[in-house]
Design goal:
about 350 residues; alpha/beta; Spore Coat Polysaccharide Biosynthesis Protein SpsA, Chain A; 2 domains; three-stranded mixed sheet; about 15% strand; globular
Length: about 350
């Protein structure tokens, strides 16, 4: 019989040599008793030094009950988490992204929250950047703005409360035994779907202000736009293939923004037809003015918060780019008929989740 430990700290990575070293140092610095803690590291077939750095950590670190380095042959994120969870022996399972930084009390605070009567917990996640360049700072400002990245509860600090989803979560093992593992058809929204199943099974997700982590913001505009588009796309796919109840209304705001913009453009074009009244173009003008006012107001707020007034000439253009990227991603997701059909078939047959063998 496998020897149980209290905590399994799981990390999956693909080509993360730039950040994985720092996270491994954070893990080494945890003030929770290492003898009651194992570390499960999963590599998705990295072409850089990520796996080698994991193996070096495993070979050098003897203070933990166990350190494992495993392969994620499917390379995708939900499959990686499933590899880690299946290999774990902990009563509690904590998942941490490779782009993250965690303080020395991270594991201890998670354990304390679970010991306080919770089944799933996490805490606020702050976005950071690893450079002082103006461009990276502007991207960070956009990511930390409600206008640029949404109002998910885990992005902000506050009192202990129950939420729909949380980043870098800690789970009782029994949660996975009851609801199953991550859906490997989902490439981006697997955590939202998992937390929906967890809530549906009757568990609560607790966010505690005592649990803190930080996450690296994308360092280029191209990467950020690609991230937003991909996130939006998988919201569309998951909503159509499973259920929109997985997400909060704020997830669909960029999609609504894109639809409104397209509708306003149509009305504006129709207003030039001689047989139609000119006032058909008024919704377009009103919508544009309202958006521009909101854009400017939240730009000013971000510039004031960061004391970076040069961003006044960039953020008003960056915000719409992020909104359109995310919104058009969601729109594109609704047309991914093959994947949507697969999800619907999984849901109908009851094979939409993998099980945890115990």
């Amino acid at each position: 019989m496998e020897q149980r430990v209290r905590v399994s700290l799981c990390v999956i990575a693909l080509n993360e040599e730039k950040y994985i070293g720092g996270l491994l140092e954070n893990i080494r610095a945890q003030d929770y008793d290492h003898k009651d803690m194992e570390v499960i590291l999963v590599d998705g077939g990295s072409s850089d030094q990520t796996k080698a750095m994991m193996e070096e950590f495993r070979d050098a670190e003897t203070s933990f009950a166990r350190v494992e380095v495993l392969d994620n042959l499917k390379r995708i994120q939900p499959a990686g988490w499933n590899v880690a969870i299946r290999a774990s022996r902990g009563e509690l399972i904590i998942r941490v992204d490779a782009h993250a930084e965690i303080p020395s009390d991270f594991v201890r605070q998670n354990v304390a929250c679970i010991d306080g009567g919770e089944d799933v917990c996490g805490g606020p996640r702050t976005n950071i950047t690893d450079g002082a360049q103006f461009g990276r700072k502007v991207l960070l400002m956009a990511e930390n703005s409600m206008f640029g990245s949404g109002i998910a509860a885990y992005r902000t600090a506050g009192e202990k409360k129950y939420v729909r989803t949380v980043a870098h979560a800690c789970y009782k093992r029994e949660v996975f035994e009851k609801v199953g593992l991550f859906n490997e058809t989902l490439l981006r929204s697997e955590d939202n779907e998992m937390h929906y199943r967890i809530r549906k099974a009757g568990y609560k997700i607790c966010m505690s202000d005592q649990i803190r982590s930080r996450y690296q913001t994308r360092t280029t505009l191209k990467r950020m736009l690609r991230q937003k588009y991909g996130n939006g796309k998988w919201i569309g796919i998951t909503s159509a293939g499973l259920t929109p109840k997985i997400f909060s209304l704020y997830h669909f705001v960029p999609f609504a923004f894109v639809l409104a913009a397209l509708a306003c453009l149509v009305l504006f074009a129709l207003a030039f037809l001689p047989q139609l009244p000119y006032w058909l173009g008024i919704p377009f003008v009103a919508g544009v003015l309202l958006y521009l006012l909101l854009d400017l107001a939240l730009t000013l707020k971000s510039c004031k918060d960061y004391k970076e007034w040069r961003a006044l000439f960039v953020l008003p253009f960056l915000f719409p780019l992020l909104h359109f990227s995310y919104g058009f991603g969601t729109l594109a997701g609704f047309f991914c008929f093959k994947t949507i059909k697969k999800l619907k078939e999984q849901k109908k047959s009851g094979t939409d989740k993998k099980t945890l063998d115990v």
